[in-house]
Amino acid sequence: ILCKSQYLQLLLILCVFFFFSSKPISSPLIVQVGHAETLQPLLALMGFFKDDEPLKANNYVRQTHRKFRSGRIVPYAANLVFVLYHCDQVKTSKEEYQVQMLLNEKLMPFHHSNETISTYADLKDYYKDILENCHFQEECELPKVNITAIDEL
């Protein structure tokens, strides 16, 4: 279960990716750095490594081949790379931008197509519900007052 700040951090990562990738490309590389512990909830939010049956104490033996295995998803250190391609020779403008996702340098198939490459438009549409609920200004606004009690220190 994610606390509000973790959930907001995940939404922020998705929002930042889609915000920057919707801008004109001015440099060949944009790097956002985080922790492996941030990647795992982000991948879960995006629907990756989801098992049909939740892991419980009474089904542990049946779950030995489950998809969600944190040691394999984010071993010691991990990396998640979104590669945005600009394709000049395409049939439609929708195909102009293509995206690939690599987790620990391995291509990941997208859920909406089960392919390792997707149009940016399709990917953005697939995560539309998550992205539309990303209220960056509201969530990142600092509190107006300090609520820490003086005797707390």
Please outline the major beta sheet. 4 strands, antiparallel
Q: What is the CA-atom radius of gyration, in angstroms? A: 19 Å
How widely separated are the two ends? 30 Å
Mean pLDDT across every amino acid position: 76
What is the tally of beta strands? 4
Main location: membrane
InterPro entries: His_Pase_clade-2 (IPR000560), His_PPase_superfam (IPR029033)
Protein name: Multiple inositol polyphosphate phosphatase 1
EC number: 3.1.3.62, 3.1.3.80
Please describe the topology of this protein.
Blueprint (H helix, E strand, L loop, with lengths): L3 H18 L14 H10 L24 H4 L6 E7 L10 E7 L2 E2 L10 E2 H7 L1 H5 L3 H5 L13
Antiparallel strand pairs: 1-2, 2-3, 2-4
Helix pairs in contact: 1-2
Describe this structure in words.
The chain has 153 residues and is of the alpha+beta class. It has one domain. Helix content is 32%, strand content 12%. Strands 1, 2, 3 and 4 form a four-stranded antiparallel sheet that branches. Strand 2 and strand 3 form a beta hairpin. Helix 1 crosses helix 2. The radius of gyration is 19 Å and the shape is globular. The protein starts with a helix and ends in a 13-residue tail after the last helix. The N terminus is likely disordered.
Structure described in brief:
The chain is α+β, with helices and mostly antiparallel strands and 153 residues long.
Search tags:
disordered N terminus, membrane, 6 helices, globular, signal, bisphosphoglycerate 3-phosphatase activity, 12% strand, Multiple inositol polyphosphate phosphatase 1, alpha+beta, His_Pase_clade-2, 153 residues, 4-stranded antiparallel beta sheet, 4 strands
